[in-house]
Amino acid sequence: MHPLIFIGGATTLGFLFALQEWIDSRFWNYHVNLSLLLSAWGVQYFLWGLICWVLWINFRQQINDASLRTVLLVGIPLSIGVCVLEEIIWVILFPRLPMGHPPMSFWPRLLFHLDAEFVDSMVIVWSAFFLFRGLGYYQRYREKELAASQLESQLVQAQMRALRMQLNPHFLFNTMNSISSLMRIDVSAADLMLEQLSRLLRITLQRGDSQFIPLSNEMEFIEMYLAMQDRRYAGRVEQQMRIDPHLHDALVPNMILQPIVENAYRHGLCRVSSGGHLDIEASRQGSRLRLAVTNSGHGLAVVHNGGSPNGVGLDNVRNRLRMHYGVEQSFSISEVEDRAVQVVLTLPLLFGSRPTDNETRYGVS
Questions:
Q1: Contact 10, 53 (CB under 8 A)
Q2: Rounded Cα–Cα distance for residues 225 and 219 (Å)
Q3: What does the domain layout of the chain look like in residue ranges?
C-alpha cells in the first residue's frame, strides 16, 4: 500500500469535488476563483490521504484486532480528535475562507467549518476504518488460503515420493527374481541382465525426484527393460514400438510405463510358450497424449481367476495419474481380440521447454 495510493487518490478526489463546485457555481451565475477551489479542496483531501496513510502504517494491526469495546471507548474519541485536528490545519492554511462572509478570527472560522464539515469528516474517518478492516480480513483469508495451498502441495509431493519409493523396490525385487530364475539355466544371460539392471538403476538415480520427463527418456528406459525381458524369454515374445516422432519431447510422469509393461509379462506373456506379442504405442489425439500397451496371453479371465490385475504396479500408475492430472486423465484395461489385454492411458499433451538432445531408437535389441 504505497503512500501514493492514499495521498494521490485522495487529492485527485478533492480536485474532482472542486471542479464540481466550480461548475455548479457557474451554473448559478456565481463567480468563484477556480484556482482557490482547487487548492482548498486539494489540500483538504491531501490531508485526509496523509492521515489515512499514517493510520494504515502505524495502527493497521490495532484496527484489525479492535473489539467492539475498543471501538466504542477508543475509536470514537480518536476519530473526533482526528477530524478536529484536520480542520484546524486546514483553517490555518486558508484564512480567506469561507468566501462570501465578513472576515473572521481563527476560532469563529474553525467553529464555522466544523459545523459545516464535521459529519463529512467523520464519514471519511470511519469509511477508512472499515476499509482497513476489510483489507485486513481479506489479507488474513489470502494468507490462510496460501498456507493451505502450500500444505496441500507438500502433501502431494510427499505422496508422490512415497509412490516412487514404493515403485523402485517393487521393480528391483521383481527383476532380481527374474535374474535368480535365469541363473539356473543360463549364467551368462543372468550376468548380462545384472549389467543391464545396473544401467537402469543408474538412470533411475540420475533422474532423482523429477516427476516429469520427456517421452523419449521414458522410452529409452523401456527399451532397456525390454532388452532384459527379451534375454529372459529367449525369443518367445515379439516386441514392437510405434511412437509418433513428433512426441519425443512430450512430458510424461517418470516411470509411468514400466509397471504396465511388467504387468503384461507377469500376467500374460509369462504364460505364452511361443508367439507372444507386446505392442507399445504413443500417439496424439487432439490435445491429449495416448499411451497404449497391448500384450497377448489368455485374456483377463485368467488374471481374474489367478489374482487381481490391480497389483502394486497398476495401482501405483492410477494413483500417480490422478495426483498429477486429476480428472484430465484416464486409465483403462480391457480385453481385445484374440484374448489380448490392452492398457490405455490418456493424459494432457504437454511439452518440455527444451528439446531432448538424444532421441531413442525406439527399437529393441
A1: no
A2: 10
A3: 3-149, 185-348
In CATH terms, the superfamily for domain 185-348 is Histidine kinase-like ATPase, C-terminal domain (3.30.565.10)
- Is-above-0.90 flag for pTM? no
* Strand segments (E) across the chain: 212-214, 237-243, 251-253, 276-285, 288-295, 330-336, 340-348
Cis, bond preceding 102 (omega within 30 deg of 0): no
Task: Name the residue with cell 471507548.
Answer: 73
Angle at 69 between CA 134 and CA 86, to 5 degrees: 65
Nine cell digits for residue 164: 516412487
* DSSP SS3 for 243: strand
Cα 174–Cα 175–Cα 180 angle in degrees, nearest 5: 95
CB atoms within 10 A of CB 4: 11
pLDDT tens per residue, range 222-250: 888 888 788 777 778 889 999 999 998 99
Between the alpha carbon of residue 365 and those of residues 15, 112, 214, 355, the distances in Å are 81, 99, 22, 25
Tell me which residue of 169, 157, 175 sits closest to 320, measured CA to CA: 157
